[in-house]
């Protein structure tokens, strides 16, 4: 099944299950097409490729915030930080780039090492992290979000990240208005 089919199937599963709220999920052929609908929503999330492309730069330029998810290994961290550096070189403000730790294990030491690595590279990182858990995949398979698993502790972990994103967006919007 290709990515396009998964995206529409996930939306269909959510609708078929009657899960509220209904969340609009659409695929676009270009960043420009996606940005045209932006005025109709309070929040638009664009999921780009995990490496630098012209599309990635367009997304970053148009975004109030660019969130780079990363795992804990150097194989995950190094290319993510290099992408952030490349976005900076091409004009993205440092305060508009933030990292989120996802698919982490249960080692707090390893999580702190990753936070240190990102911090030393000069970037901010969201509080909290998302562990690698079957329940997150199952929730997605059912058309649910990461905060809609059957496990309150996992829902709380995703809520911490989501609230940090909201807080950061609010801070950036206030700075933009000033």
Topology diagram in text:
Layout: H1 3-16, H2 31-36, H3 54-62, E1 66-70, H4 74-89, E2 97-104, H5 108-120, E3 124-125, E4 130-131, H6 134-141, H7 152-177
Parallel strand pairs: 1-2, 2-3, 2-4
Distinctive features:
178 residues; Rossmann fold; alpha/beta; 4-stranded parallel beta sheet; 7 helices; 10% strand
The biggest sheet, with number of strands, parallel, antiparallel or mixed sense and barrel status, is:
4 strands, parallel
Q: How many DSSP E strands?
A: 4
Which geometry do the CA atoms define?
globular
Termini distance? 47 Å
CATH homologous group name: P-loop containing nucleotide triphosphate hydrolases
Indicate the CATH topology: Rossmann fold
* Helical amount: 40-55%
In percent, how much strand structure appears in the residues?
Answer: 5-15%
Mean pLDDT: 87
Q: Under the CATH scheme, which class?
A: Alpha Beta
- The number of helical elements comes to 7
- The low-pLDDT segments are 1-8
CATH architecture, please?
3-Layer(aba) Sandwich
- In sequence order, what are the helices and strands, one letter per element? HHHEHEHEEHH
Which secondary-structure class do the elements indicate?
Answer: alpha/beta
Overall tally of domains: 1
Radius of gyration of CA atoms, rounded to a whole number: 17 Å
């Amino acid at each position: 099944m290709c990515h396009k089919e998964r995206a529409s199937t996930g939306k269909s599963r959510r609708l078929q299950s009657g899960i509220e709220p209904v969340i609009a999920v659409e695929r676009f052929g270009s960043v420009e097409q996606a940005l045209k609908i932006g005025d109709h929503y309070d929040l638009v999330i664009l999921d780009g490729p995990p490496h630098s492309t012209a599309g990635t730069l367009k997304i970053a330029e148009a975004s109030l915030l660019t969130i780079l998810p990363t795992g804990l290994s150097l194989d995950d961290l190094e290319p993510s930080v290099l992408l952030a550096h490349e976005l900076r070189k091409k004009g993205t403000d440092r305060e508009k780039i933030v990292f989120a730790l996802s698919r982490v294990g249960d080692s707090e030491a390893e999580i702190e090492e990753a936070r240190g690595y990102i911090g030393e590279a000069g970037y901010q990182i969201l509080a909290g992290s998302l562990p690698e858990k079957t329940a997150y995949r199952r929730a997605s398979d059912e058309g649910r979000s990461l905060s809609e698993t059957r496990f309150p502790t996992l829902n709380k972990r995703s809520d911490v990240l989501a609230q940090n994103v909201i807080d950061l967006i609010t801070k950036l919007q206030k700075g933009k208005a000033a």
